[in-house]
Structure formats: C-alpha cells, structure tokens
Design a protein that fits this description.
Radius of gyration: 14 Å
Strand order of the largest sheet: 1-5-4-3-2
Helix content: 40-55%
Order of helices and strands: EHHEEEEHH
Shape: globular
Number of helices: 4
Length: 103
C-alpha cells in the first residue's frame, strides 16, 4: 500500500462504472468524508492542505498535495466521467437520479 499522486493511473484502478460511484467519489473529496466506497481525509500542513483518498479494493491511496490539485482532480472527474454541464456534478447527479427513478 502506498501513496500515489498520478490520479489518472489511480482512477484506472477504481470502479466508476455507475453514476452513483462517480458521485460518491466527488462527495467524498469535496466534503473530506466517507461516501460509498471512498474515504477522504484532509491534512493541514505548514504550506496548506493535502488530501488522502482511499477506495475499497484499491491498495494505493491517492495523495493530492494542495487545494489546487484537489480542484484539478474534481474537474478531471467531471470532464471524463460525467456529461455534467460546466462540471456541476451535483446537478448532473440529481438529473441521473430523476431519470432513473420509477414512480
């Protein structure tokens, strides 16, 4: 188990097949908490904040070294795993839930 900084490589080993998985990752990173199969912790350092993201089934922990890196990561997830307008994963997820809901 190690820390990795290449989020594209890390994401290639994470299950993001369902919109629920993508949202759980986004929610975990945004709120520094557990969500679905993801858990994010925030470390305060002398130079700013760092983020450690764990995913069930993946031995490696993703290490985002700054707030800027966190925002780049979330933008990458929005651009590559959703069709969210302007990267708005919250609204994208709400629409996906509405579409999938059967009354």
């Amino acid at each position: 188990m190690g820390k990795v900084t290449d989020y594209q490589d890390w994401l290639s080993r994470v299950n993001l097949e369902e919109h629920e998985d993508v949202y759980n990752l986004y929610n975990s990173v945004s709120n520094y908490e557990g969500s679905g199969t993801f858990y994010t912790s925030k470390e305060v350092t002398n130079t700013g904040n760092e983020y450690l993201i764990k995913a069930e089934g993946n031995e490696d922990t993703l290490h985002l070294e700054s707030d800027e890196e966190k925002f780049h990561f979330l933008k990458f997830v929005a651009d590559n795993y959703t069709d969210a307008e302007e990267g708005d994963i919250d609204n994208w997820y709400k629409l996906k839930k509405e579409i999938g809901r059967v009354d």
